[in-house]
Design brief:
The chain is an all-alpha fold and 264 residues long. The protein contains 10 helices and no strands. It has one domain.
Length: 264
């Protein structure tokens, strides 16, 4: 689902690019009134985001219940980015900075849209991998979605002995968000919505998963969500919370001496 959601985001952005208002000043934003623009600050955000993503993937791969953790996390990612694709398709606003480069508009044909998708898909929206040229991916910040889902994955699925690292990740995420705003890549509302969407989806899924294993998912008000069926499907073979231990170990394909040495 995550791959499909990301494709939908790229498709929505490639289509919306031609509809973004040009020649208009950025919308009023309280943050922009208080702080100056620092264009290079986005590099700090993306380095932090890449670091946190790698660490979250390492936790998923090394968790003793890696396949259960993987489908939980990637479902949350897919759902969050699907919501983002819908949002950026529904509303187009001027870019947050007059210094933002937007490539010229195209002819709007299907072939031109798919060509944009082909050119930008592999970079995953990271400007360090490919300079930005498409505009319109506002309203919900994709960087914020990634930052918070990776942070929550690390905090939720690592042993208690690594709790202090979770606080460090919180601080990193906060710094990254500040840098997004300083670089004026998003409006403040985009950041807020990114935080709200990512945390509510992650927490709602795990709350429903706990209810499922306790046998009272139908009495949980969150079960009215249209995607509750996915929780029942993904959790059907997962151990209950009291047996789900956060133990990190090397995958079975690694040599046994490394697994014994580095297991936590």
């Amino acid at each position: 689902m995550s791959g499909l959601a990301w494709f939908l985001n790229e498709l929505a952005l490639a289509w919306i690019h031609d509809k973004v208002p040009r020649g208009f000043d950025p919308l009023p934003d309280l943050w922009f009134q208080w702080f100056p623009e620092i264009r290079g600050a986005i590099q700090i955000t993306e380095y932090i985001m890449i670091f946190m993503t790698i660490n979250a993937l390492a936790v998923v791969i090394c968790h003793q219940h890696r396949w259960i953790v993987a489908r939980r996390v990637f479902f949350c990612v897919g759902l969050a980015y699907t919501f983002r694709a819908i949002c950026i398709s529904l509303l187009q606003v001027p870019v947050p900075s007059v210094n933002t480069y937007c490539a010229p508009k195209g002819d709007g044909t299907f072939s031109s849209v798919m060509e944009r998708v082909r050119r930008t898909f592999w970079s995953a929206g990271i400007e360090q991998l490919r300079p930005r040229e498409l505009c319109g991916d506002l309203i919900v910040s994709g960087h914020t979605l990634t930052l918070f889902i990776t942070m929550m994955t690390f905090r939720h699925y690592t042993p208690k002995r690594l709790t202090y690292l979770g606080y460090f990740y919180n601080a990193l995420a906060f710094v990254a968000l500040i840098c997004i705003l300083l670089a004026r890549k998003h409006y403040s509302i985009d950041i807020f919505l990114g935080y709200f969407v990512s945390t509510r989806i992650f927490w709602s899924y795990h709350a429903l998963a706990n209810s499922y294993h306790q046998g009272d998912i139908d009495s949980n008000p969150l079960s009215q969500s249209w995607w509750t069926f996915a929780v029942r499907y993904f959790e059907s073979d997962a151990p209950p919370p009291n047996l789900f231990l956060n133990v990190l170990e090397w995958p079975s394909s690694c040599p046994s001496k490394f697994r014994r040495r580095f297991s936590m």
